[in-house]
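User: These chains co-purify. Model them together.
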Amino acid sequence: MEKTYAEIEKKILEARDISLVSHINPDGDNIGSILGLGAALRKMGKDVHILKVDDIPKNLLFLPRVEEIKPMEKRPDLLFVLDSSDEGRLGDGSKEILKANYIINIDHHKSNTLFGDINLVDASMSSTGEMVYDLIDFLGVELDNEIATPIYTAINSDTGSFRYESTSPDTLRKAANLLEFVDNKVEITKNLYQSRTKVQTEVIKIVLNNLESFDDLSLIIGKISLNDLERLGAQSDDTEGVVPFINEIEGYDVAIFLKEKEEGIVRVSARSKEVCDVSILCEKFDGGGHKRAAGATIEGNLDEAIEKLISAYKEL
Amino acid sequence: MEKTYAEIEKKILEARDISLVSHINPDGDNIGSILGLGAALRKMGKDVHILKVDDIPKNLLFLPRVEEIKPMEKRPDLLFVLDSSDEGRLGDGSKEILKANYIINIDHHKSNTLFGDINLVDASMSSTGEMVYDLIDFLGVELDNEIATPIYTAINSDTGSFRYESTSPDTLRKAANLLEFVDNKVEITKNLYQSRTKVQTEVIKIVLNNLESFDDLSLIIGKISLNDLERLGAQSDDTEGVVPFINEIEGYDVAIFLKEKEEGIVRVSARSKEVCDVSILCEKFDGGGHKRAAGATIEGNLDEAIEKLISAYKEL
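Assistant: Joint model of the two components:
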């Protein structure tokens, strides 16, 4: 790791102009890591561009300088890709973005395809935010609110507020050091955990009324139809938080949430408490993720998706 | 503080037989703090008795040696009262229990009445668990799983998994040091945050279907009737988690949950995000707590309680 850090430092010191790219369906770890590393690089005197490939969820719009995340204007020289397991995560424009002269890939997904010129990949880390913390520490950049708030947000959101198994004592120590520099921690909690909209609340009501539990499989499934989503006028981030909510119900190792995205296309979000590796389950449908949190897309209607999932799950 | 710690240490060293008492409606901070300090005192060679004054919530029964929490058998010599703002918290048998020869009162509620012979009260602390951590550190007792698991649980539960404003960088550092010694952190998360029962899920469904929001007051109220509770066969801990859930809805500074406990008696749980000091609101009804989390009991039916609360809230 030390050697990789030193290589990354060398590249940063040589560069004048550095770009960092977010991924599609960006989450707190992605946006927080990019803004935090971007702020640190700016503090080192670099020209920093943060590239947008998808809309930023509303509950991350409080982050400092989030408004500077913009579509690519010119081919990047040195490019950081954070929290993205493969090039596809950069969306439709990925080909253009990846024409960068040099790519540094920093990620904590074990399925990372090592597509960078330098690859800093560590699946033992709770979050990409934690890896960015270590890099900034190595670079010797002093923390301030603009660096600490997004990285604290990244780590906090990707560990479900330090609840997930991936949270180590070091995760908490890094969070402690960051929190020293956070100007407004109430804002972080409010945005990450106390910002359920009326539509999200309606979604949860519908999901609760249609739960299907399979006691012998230790599996519980929640679902919502395209019809209901359209009736509520739900946007894509209005279903955020549903799968952790289902996973809070006791007695089931695996919690799955199914969302009918389009006619015949179902988005799957899976969580597990301590036994099943849901990334393996999702890989069967060309998805992926982590042991305790993963996702995939299945063709079919909701009932067909449930059937396919159950048969794949039984095979595990 | 140092002086108070030294006085407590002196008393512990002099004693052979030490009792610790839980409070009524015990929570994670209370039970965790008592079991953790009890384990540390045992490690110092003391005979330790942990006194039960009320039933232990199901989701805390995983804690090491929780089964040794028992009703009082003989008058305590040295007695620790933890996480209890006044003697009334010890329930009906409080008079007998408080006949102890010497009482050490450790608490983080600002309303603490300082009823002990020694009072270690610090409202700046996130939890009593955090204060017990500091005491054990002062005593020089080495951490192990039996000490660390309950204290980590205490801090974690009283900070809502490190989300509340009371969480300081030091809170996270202490949690990090404890986590080094926790044998099974998955068990803690499962019990604290992934153990919502079927009945609790039904309660949330009912509350969601009957939410009353007062946009101009930045107030949202959820409620459940005695009738519904009886129909569901709900126990007292089946309404745990409802008020934090309501407080997760965006756009309201204050979230209140009302539970009709008996005919004409309504239990109030209040939370706030960043403005209102709900302990002052609850004190108007002889309740109390913290700025961001407090409780009280109001006479009347649910509608009368809402009326009384709103008029008290408007006065603030």
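DSSP finds twelve helices and twelve strands in chain A.
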